[in-house]
Inverse folding.
């Protein structure tokens, strides 16, 4: 099965991935093949089986409400592509 | 004719010291952006969240106060969307198994009749707050700025049923939440700082001639951060939907739910830019966080440390101390500490009505003027109760009691708590004790008449006002005398000739 | 004596006794990197001065008679997915080309506390997605046994560095076999601990419910020492398990009596290369000769493991990698005008094809309308896979089988067929889904001289059993002492140092 082009584009948009036309075509085939392959799970009866989210099933892992030192601002911003020394900067967010 | 249908999504910031998944401070600090962050709340590669136990405790307290069911098993989910104030590309929230659900709040609609509206709570869940985006206001399209100090602050999101029927009710619900949550000490509910804010879902059910009703499309007004704005925004939106419906006839079947903002300067709601695609948040269980179980013992422990809710307290004050609904509301709305101060005064003096008068007038006024907190107010409840009792027993006039009260407060900023002995000292010092000896009063009157022939003549010539000066002079001598008694006896004496 | 030619365990003992200095050991390995990494291309970043400073520090400590940590002076290479404060952590992605974490991973704190010497950062498949190193944005690591072949992946550099004796020990991460598979293909020891045994704090996430950091070494002894040093509870990782760490190195040489080894028939089905099968059978015979009982077992759901894995890992990855949006760190496009464009272009430019493929698959599997059909379904089958192991371990102590269906494949052989590449993880993936520990040890060579690995699996937190079982085989064989030719020859040709 080859995935419809619109599906690939919709998923790419959800994932915020800009794809070239060649990539879109490639993924149509490859993702289609992977989805065909994973369809084998349909033959397993899981009606009585609970989903297993964690490899080790722990509960109630908590911390106390104690302050820990934060990073210096310079460290927080050090890896940012664009800052003014105080804030992270991004292209204008347009609202309204 | 139409019915207004409103449901709120209320966001409450919990008053933990640290963020929900890391040890950074939750202090409001907009002047120093990006100083309360760490690898976890910056969403740095490799960092992992660990749940703050106190956030869950406060959240459960909140839900219990809303009469919600508490889930014995709850978990964390990731809500995924891209936004610059959301550093991980997902918000840790709760999706299909919120920690609480199915509660209600009773909203008093009329204090005199006791008429109320029961507003259902669909669910309350815990989540992390996002950071803050600051936009360039110049219109030149300059970069937006991102401050992550707030990212990861614990929030409880409370979703009500669409049970509210007017803008006023929406405002009142928010006020009730404010009062409730500050009472429980789960949130400071500081609205300027965004600790309490809501989204309002509004539409109309328009009555048709055939007796059926038609619903207008639902609009969600985002991010309302004051009582007034909430009422204004909803009022505007009701009118706008009514006009639009009359013009276009569009119903809920013709348009999906849309999102609007509120501009407080113009008092209008406005369309927010529609997203290109319908939101698909792709919620799934967060593999980095363990699920949470809540035991009956844990719930019992939290319940046992909970104070009465403001609604319960208002009712009890009315029943126990015969307060008017208005007085009960004024006292309770001052918060838990003022309410318990009142209760102690009322219990001590045995007169709830007088205690309410003193607390709502004198105490609140002096607290405000002197910028004192009720915890450190120098006149403690037993002292105030004693003062009120002395008036009731006619040992002190109400005027003298006020004088003693002010004297106890003193002129200085730092006053140690007043003692009962101090009351006696001030009364003695200033001669405020009520003089009940008629002989002494008559003697003083005789002396004053003797010294003021002019006033006596004026009075006898028909100038009633002249008696005032005579009373004043008697009272100067006998501070504790009852002015009405003095007047009565002067008039009798002069009239007798 | 060439210090690089000693086995890692031997080296560790000599460092402990003070017979050799850390500076000597570290220098020997740094020199080996200069001499041979031009061929192998295992390292992305080596800071010679920093490594030598650490080595000198440990030697000085020892001279002063101060107590030293359990890995004192041992050079250790780190997969470029583990954060070390101020050092690169690119994940072999253009996305993180300039990223320098402001903090240490838990394992790095542990290594520092153990007085290990951080030697350098190793190449990998981008964001740990891949089985060949070909998904690295920077370079392709070669198999030291045949430079035209893959060392496996995704911990390609960490495995190849140890195999080529450029580092005695190293750390990798294993999400679907990314330690065991390259260990098998490179003829060394590699271990994936129980999920929760080693903190993931500071491990850049690929698939959070499957990822686990683990050791590589030339022998079982050093594997045990490194595991002992990095294991244990960390309150910063909610999935870290608070259980004491046994002294693995102390029990290592005690053989297990009455050992019952399960042999899963599913691991010997179609697709298993006959040479690999023969070597694994020989290894099983070694255990039989040592008194172990071999039992046939079945893991009926193992054939679903790859499908299950790619749905779960893809879903988690699509979410874990959403943070790379060009706002707070990482690559930002120069081209975009709007915010939405910036997101899509930054991610489109900086992620490689395999990363995109898995993000796409995961996004699809979690999207509205497909969530139950793909993601939740996979989670349910995951439990069945775990239950298969629970049943098996009720009967046997250890499950044994091949690590990979074939020995190292040619570079380029599977790059155009992602599904074929995925299938090379068929034997390793179920351990991640189940959360159980696994180890790969050398058990022979193909005619063409390529190493073959034996995989041993144990119940959760039975690393001790796993290591002792592995050591029983190691004592009877000499596969682990063989070294690839590149170690003795060395081209000495190093084109450019790929220093990010
Ligand atoms: Mg929310
Ligand atoms: Zn933080």
């Amino acid at each position: 099965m080859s995935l419809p082009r619109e599906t690939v584009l919709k998923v790419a948009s959800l994932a915020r991935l800009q794809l070239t036309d060649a990539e879109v075509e490639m993924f149509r085939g490859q993702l289609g093949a992977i989805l065909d392959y994973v369809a084998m799970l349909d033959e397993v009866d899981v009606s009585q089986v609970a989903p297993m989210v964690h490899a080790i099933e722990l509960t109630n892992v908590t911390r106390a409400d104690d302050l820990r030192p934060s990073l210096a601002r310079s460290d927080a911003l050090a890896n940012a592509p664009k800052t003014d020394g105080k804030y992270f900067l991004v292209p204008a967010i347009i609202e309204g | 004719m139409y019915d207004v249908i409103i449901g709120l999504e209320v966001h409450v910031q919990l008053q933990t010291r640290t963020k929900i998944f890391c040890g950074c401070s939750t202090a409001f600090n907009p002047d120093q952006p990006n100083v309360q962050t760490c690898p976890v709340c910056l969403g740095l590669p490799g960092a992992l969240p660990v749940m703050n136990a106190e956030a869950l405790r406060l959240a459960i307290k909140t839900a219990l106060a809303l009469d919600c069911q508490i889930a014995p098993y709850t978990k964390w989910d990731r809500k995924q969307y891209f936004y610059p104030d959301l550093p991980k590309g997902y918000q840790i929230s709760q999706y299909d198994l919120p920690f609480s659900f199915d509660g209600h709040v009773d909203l008093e609609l009329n204090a005199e009749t006791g008429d109320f509206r029961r507003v259902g709570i669909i669910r309350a869940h815990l989540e992390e707050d996002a950071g803050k985006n600051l936009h360039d206001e110049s219109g030149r399209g300059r970069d937006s700025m991102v401050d992550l100090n707030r990212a990861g602050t614990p929030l409880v999101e409370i979703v009500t049923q669409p049970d509210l029927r007017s803008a006023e009710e929406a405002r009142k619900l928010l006020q009730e939440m404010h009062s409730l949550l500050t009472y429980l000490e789960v949130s400071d509910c500081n609205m300027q700082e965004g600790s309490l804010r809501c989204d309002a879902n509004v539409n109309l059910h328009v009555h048709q001639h055939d007796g059926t009703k038609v619903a207008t499309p639902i609009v969600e007004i985002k991010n309302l951060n004051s009582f007034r704005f909430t009422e204004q925004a909803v009022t505007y939106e009701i009118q706008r939907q009514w006009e639009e419906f009359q013009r276009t006839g569009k119903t809920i079947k013709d348009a999906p739910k849309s999102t609007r903002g509120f501009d407080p300067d113009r008092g209008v709601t406005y369309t927010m830019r529609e997203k290109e695609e319908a939101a698909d948040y792709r919620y799934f269980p967060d593999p980095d966080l363990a699920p949470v179980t809540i035991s009956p013992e844990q719930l019992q422990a939290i319940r046992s440390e909970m104070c009465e809710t403001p609604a319960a307290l208002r009712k009890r004050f009315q029943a126990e101390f015969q307060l008017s609904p208005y007085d009960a509301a004024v006292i309770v709305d001052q918060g838990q500490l003022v309410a318990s101060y009142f209760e102690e005064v009322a219990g001590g003096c045995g007169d709830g009505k007088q205690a309410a008068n003193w607390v709502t007038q004198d105490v609140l006024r002096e607290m405000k003027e002197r910028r004192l907190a009720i915890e450190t107010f120098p006149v403690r409840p037993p002292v105030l109760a004693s003062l009120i009792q002395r008036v009731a027993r006619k040992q002190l006039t109400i005027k003298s009691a006020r004088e003693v009260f002010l004297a106890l407060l003193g002129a200085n900023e730092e006053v140690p708590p007043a003692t009962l002995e101090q009351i006696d000292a001030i009364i003695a010092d200033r001669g405020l004790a009520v003089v009940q000896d008629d002989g002494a009063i008559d003697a003083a009157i005789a002396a004053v008449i003797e010294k003021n022939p002019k006033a006596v003549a004026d009075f006898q010539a028909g100038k009633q006002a002249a008696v005032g000066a005579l009373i004043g002079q008697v009272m100067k001598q006998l501070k504790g005398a009852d002015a009405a008694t003095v007047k009565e006896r002067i008039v009798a004496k002069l009239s007798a000739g | 004596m060439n210090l690089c030619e000693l086995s890692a365990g031997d080296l560790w003992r000599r460092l402990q006794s003070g017979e050799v200095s850390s500076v000597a050991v570290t220098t020997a390995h740094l020199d080996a990197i200069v001499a041979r990494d031009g061929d192998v291309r295992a390292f992305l970043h080596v800071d010679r001065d920093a490594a030598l400073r650490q080595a000198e520090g440990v030697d000085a400590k020892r001279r002063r008679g101060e107590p030293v940590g359990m890995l004192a002076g041992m050079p250790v290479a780190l997969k470029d997915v583990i954060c070390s404060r101020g050092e690169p952590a690119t994940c072999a992605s253009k996305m993180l080309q300039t990223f320098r974490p402001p903090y240490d991973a838990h394992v790095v704190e542990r290594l520092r506390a153990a007085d290990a010497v951080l030697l350098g950062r190793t190449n990998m498949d981008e964001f740990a997605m891949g089985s060949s190193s070909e998904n690295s944005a920077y370079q392709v690591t070669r198999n030291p046994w045949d430079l035209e072949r893959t060392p496996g992946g995704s911990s390609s550099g960490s495995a190849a560095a140890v195999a080529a004796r450029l580092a005695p020990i190293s750390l990798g991460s294993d999400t679907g076999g990314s330690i065991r598979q390259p260990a098998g293909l490179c003829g060394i020891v590699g271990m994936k601990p129980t999920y929760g045994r080693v903190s993931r704090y500071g491990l850049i996430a690929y698939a959070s419910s499957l990822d686990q950091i683990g050791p590589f070494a030339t022998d079982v002894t050093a594997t045990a020492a490194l595991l002992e040093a990095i294991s244990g509870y960390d309150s910063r990782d909610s999935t870290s398990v608070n259980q004491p760490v046994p002294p693995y190195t102390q029990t290592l040489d005690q053989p297990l009596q009455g050992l019952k080894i399960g042999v899963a028939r599913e691991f010997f089905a179609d697709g298993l290369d006959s040479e690999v099968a023969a070597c694994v059978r020989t290894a099983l015979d070694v255990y039989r000769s040592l008194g172990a009982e071999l039992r046939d077992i079945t893991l009926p759901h193992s054939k679903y493991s790859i499908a299950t894995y790619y749905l779960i890992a893809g879903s988690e990855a699509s979410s874990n990698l959403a943070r790379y949006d060009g706002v707070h760190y990482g690559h930002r496009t120069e081209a975009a005008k709007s915010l939405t464009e910036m997101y899509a272009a930054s991610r489109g430019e900086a992620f490689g094809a395999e990363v995109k493929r898995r993000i796409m698959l995961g996004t699809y599997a979690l999207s509205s309308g497909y969530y139950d059909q793909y993601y939740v379904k996979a989670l349910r089958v995951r439990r069945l896979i775990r239950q298969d192991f629970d049943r098996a371990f009720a009967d046997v102590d250890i499950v044994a089988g091949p690590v990979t269906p074939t020995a190292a494949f040619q570079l380029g052989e599977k790059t155009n067929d992602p599904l074929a590449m995925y299938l090379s993880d068929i034997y390793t993936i179920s351990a991640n889904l189940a959360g159980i520990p696994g180890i790969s040890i050398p058990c022979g060579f193909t005619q063409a001289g390529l190493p073959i690995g034996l995989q041993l699996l144990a119940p959760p937190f039975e690393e001790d059993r796993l290591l002792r079982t592995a050591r029983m085989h190691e004592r009877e064989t000499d596969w682990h002492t063989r070294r690839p030719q590149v170690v003795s020859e060395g081209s000495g040709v190093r084109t450019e140092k790929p220093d990010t």
About this structure: Chain A touches chain C through 52 residues (CB under 8 Å). Chain A has a mean pLDDT of 95.
